[in-house]
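Handout, page 2. Input:
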Amino acid sequence: MLEKYGVFELAQQPHQQPFFIIRKKNTALQFASETHDNTYTYKPYNKVPWALPTEPQDYVTTLDLWNEVKECLYAHIDLPDTDSYEVLTAWIFASWLIEKWTIAPYLFAFGSFNTGKTRILEVLAKLSMRGWLALYISTASLYRPVESWHPTLFLDEAEVYGTKHEMIGLLNGSYRKGQYVARQRETDGDYETDFFDCFSFKAIAGTKELAKTLQSRCIILRTSSATRKIKFFVDEKRCTQLRNKLLKWRFDTLLSEDLEDFEDILKSCEDLVEQIGNQREVELFYPLISVAPTQDIKKRLIEYAKRSASSKLEELSLTTEATCLSAILQAKERGLMKNGKLLICEITGIVNETLSFSEQWKERHTSTLCSRLGFQKARGTQGKAVIIWSQPLVDRLRKDQRYTSSFTLPLPETSSKCSNSSNEQLNEAEKTSLDWLTKNQKDVPT
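Output:
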């Protein structure tokens, strides 16, 4: 943006050099080889890694343009959940107004091989603002381009990032506006720290789950093999026309004198936090709900957000913390608490009652999870580790929707034993095996 009085964007006609399209308040469109504001003079890049618009193109209404984009997505992509097309359309529109948001929601296309994940990225890259499909790129190659251009970034085959902590750090640190990613640079034998603003919309595709910290920043699209006929190749002409219309919509929206006040939408989002108990999920959907052209579409996006949050909470209920809390509550119900303390080995024994020998928990693992839940640890009788029961903490955890299942699980019929219950189970199994061998020895040939 040129201060707050104008907007300009890079464009290119076929077989010509890129140029600027400039739109200022109360003036006609301008086409120029450079532009400037009170601080800088800007000149076009000769080459950029995204498909450029050719010129702003008129559209009838925002709703008409919305439906055109959604129909284009439907023609190229087959998704199991039909409401996903509404979400993707909203995400594309929101990417063209990146200056308005403090949160850039990520997309994560998650599914097995050959389920259309790469096709989703390809089509979105053609329709999003500055959609850069960065294939097989190193982390070091992203910092400066993303800071310079704030493109909509698309990363395929995310499973390769599982062990690349630098990439995970870049993605985690650029989800919110105003955050900076630090990077060391060697200069004349010494090291200096550079800070990069990598805030941008991003979409990721992969066959494996992402790191939990990164996945919590994503709207998850679960993919499956196409069950209907879709376009074999991406319709470049159609996508170019839509890019041109979206550029015109961007100009119109950013420079509108009566720019929509999003206070009502923000209030509905605050109410939504109360309903689903997950502020992060509401943050992800706020830009999408804001750009929706009708109340009906806004309501459908809100319902999708609720389902998405519910699905994530269901997955969180399967975490080791939830399992540990369930065992703590069961230990108390069984009367194992003495003087307000529970033995960690007793808690471990309850967890191990339902696990195979190879999956058995160690007391050290249980101790870490108890601390993570907020319980204070101490040394009990005979030097055994205990946790101190805290009713206010338990009441607080009861209100956390991540742990709802921990308060509703039925108690196993068996009881816990503190002194290496897993070893006792193993010894019992060995005893049964020896009894069988003794009983059948007479049938074994000598």
